[in-house]
Amino acid sequence: MTPASRSPEARADEAAGLALAIDLSVVGAIIVNLSEVRPATFLGKGKVEELAQRIKEEEIALCVVDCALSPVQQRNLEKAFACKVIDRTGLILEIFGRRARTREGALQVELAHLDYQKSRLVRSWTHLERQRGGFGFLGGPGETQIETDRRLLQERIIRIKVELEAVKKTRALHRASRKEVPYPIVALVGYTNAGKSTLFNKLTKADVLAADMLFATLDPTLRLLELPHGAKAILSDTVGFISDLPTMLIQAFRATLEEVRAADVILHVRDIAHVDSGAQGEDVIGILNELGVEAGAAKMIEVWNKADLLPPGGAPEIKRGANAPILVSAVTGQGLDTLIAAIETRLAHGRPTISLKLAATDGAGLAWLYENAEILSRKDAKDGAITLKLRVAPEMEARVRKRFAV
User: Fold this and answer.
1) Strand, helix or coil at 328?
2) Rounded to two decimals, what is the model's pTM?
3) Quick one: 366 exposed, middle or buried, by C-beta within 10 A (0-12, 13-18, 19+)?
4) Angle at the Cα of 226 (from 221 to 227), degrees rounded to 5?
5) SS3 for 222?
6) Prior bond to 184 cis, omega within 30?
7) Above 60 in pLDDT, residue 255?
8) Among 85, 182, 363, 386, which is most buried by a count of CB atoms within 10 Å?
């Protein structure tokens, strides 16, 4: 597959969005065309001098370079610009540091941050004396030089990995207990700001933060999803992906994304109104592949969100078929009935159907079936007997057949 092109302007807009996500004031964005990358400063000498002059004149306190800088390049640019310089990785880590709310999320981000800091020990390490969110790339109280002690850093990394392993075991126990219910898992994935949380809220009537900003959701959220024929599923909202996601963040968030790995159905939510929707979709698939998530056609439903933002007649053509994308608007509710029906159909694959007859007096049995199976059809006879056609999870089939002597 040929990678979808991403325009420099769209990349610049995304970088500005990342900066705005942590309340920075963006005074300008400059697109620099490079013929080659300079080992010392990444940018050429003339461009460095030009930018240094502008930074001085406009009294700019922070420069964000939307790429990965080596520690040497970062230090040299700071000297040349006489201001703080952070790269794309540092900016994303700063956002994650401020947004993580759960203990697990905070540990995952700190682990990623420490891996990043290994080669940048001259940088601040303010989480040891946390007085605010974030991880101190942008300065702030509590800065010390104790980060020069490489042994302390490595010991902290080891402790965090032990704690995260315990979190992973706890999640595994939770999944095992859910299997006894059993509810299938439907996981939402997608590029950051694709509208996953808005869709999550609409489908589950929840109130998860859904803001028009990058990385509004970091910590996973689970809610019950009611399906048309009475079945239930667990819907999981996860962290959004982004192009050039730092490798250490992919590794650190493996525990969080276990819900995606264990999912029965994956909803790949795309902002179909975005100019870079195609490239964003490919980035998500690439990260899923890197995480070892099986995201084949049998498991994934592509959801084209934000139909309400398309111009009149601007909806892209959708090819018909079992795996056709579903056009929705999480804001207006357009297409959500079709999406829920598609989820139910996909979950039904491999689930046996059973026909049985209940006596009029077996009210307890009827209530149990409504709770533990999908009732596809029901016929009530004049004598009160009830004929049901139902669908059950594979692991429940033997239990149903034994209880009702089918």
Assistant:
1) coil
2) 0.74
3) middle
4) 125
5) strand
6) no
7) no
8) 85
